[in-house]
Amino acid sequence: MSRVHYYWMKEIAGLQLLDLTMVFLTMSPQINSVALYLKQSRPLFRIGLCIVSLGGILSLSEVIFEFFSLTGNDLVHFELWRLFTHFTIETNIFAFILLVWNLHQVASLIEPNWGVFETIKYLGIVQIGSSLLIAIVALLTFVITVNDTFFFRTYIFGLLSACSAVCVAMKQYLPDSVLLTTPIGHIKNTHLPSCILVSASFLVGFGLLRWVSLLQILSGIQISWIYLRFLQPHDGEPRGDASEHFAWATYAI
């Protein structure tokens, strides 16, 4: 290598190092903001974020993905432990972003008012109940139509049912809080269940989200509404929420 070539390569390396330094300095405030938020966030958010992030990384392995996820066939073989592992993995970036946003809402709004036990119980009932229901539907579909695609090859995974449950809880707790102002009106918390369903439908239509996610969202909305409407315990008060703003008819709005 000639001396000129050597100094030319050294100059390029120096410029690349300078560019990387400038990029780091530019991103430094954002990195510090994220680090500060994580430090100040509630433990439930940090633990949940660690679990779903680890699950997202592990789901890149096909072996781990198939081992953790759930199908109707797994239910028939009594592999019920999958009900407690399938929600730890997620392969879709849109679902992951929604999940992180919902984790923030759970940690900042729901868990401080309900407590850790009631929050985890609520989300667990909706998530596991929804996945169990979808697996049963897959089994019935196979028995009736003899089509094995849904039963054997449609994987149920992720926390979209729990995300739906968070949206329903926000609709119940702060229905009139404005999330977004548009030229045609306000989008409020009361519209969240409908918004997540419509958004998922568009993503599924364009092939950007798995179709079974619609079943996860629909069943999650239904189960969470039943729990909050009729079953959730309250200190010294009747179970559930009989208020008109939380009636089933309001979900069509």
Summarize, please:
It is a multi-pass membrane protein. One of its GO terms (cellular component) is membrane. This protein is mainly α and 253 residues long.
Structural notes for this entry:
- The chain is mainly alpha-helical and about 250 residues long.
- The protein folds into two domains: about 1-40; about 45-245, Rhomboid-like (Rhomboid-like fold).
- It is about 70% helix and about 5% strand.
- The protein contains ten helices and two strands, in the order H-H-H-H-H-H-H-H-E-E-H-H.
- The protein has a two-stranded antiparallel ribbon.
- Helix 8 (about 160-175) runs parallel beside helix 10.
- Mean pLDDT is about 85; it is low at about 5-20.
- Keywords: Membrane, Transmembrane, Transmembrane helix.
- One of its GO terms (cellular component) is Golgi apparatus.
- It holds the Pfam family DUF1751.
- It is found in: Membrane.
List keywords for this structure.
single chain; 2 strands; Rhomboid-like fold; mainly alpha; 10 helices; 253 residues; 2 domains; two-stranded antiparallel sheet
The CATH homology group name of the largest domain: Rhomboid-like
SS field, number of helical segments: 10
For the sheet with most strands, the description reads: 2 strands, antiparallel
How many domains, in number, for the residues? 2
| Percent range of helical residues | 55-70%
Strands of the biggest beta sheet: in what spatial order?
1-2
Under the CATH scheme, which class of the largest domain?
Mainly Alpha
- H/E series, N to C? HHHHHHHHEEHH
Global morphology: globular
Our Rg estimate from Cα atoms comes to 23 Å
The rounded distance between the terminal residues' Cα atoms is 73 Å
Uncertain stretches of 5 or more adjacent residues? 3-18
Main location: membrane
InterPro entries: Rhomboid-like_sf, TMEM115/Pdh1/Rbl19
Transmembrane segments: 45-68, 80-101, 122-144, 150-170, 191-208
Pfam family, one: DUF1751
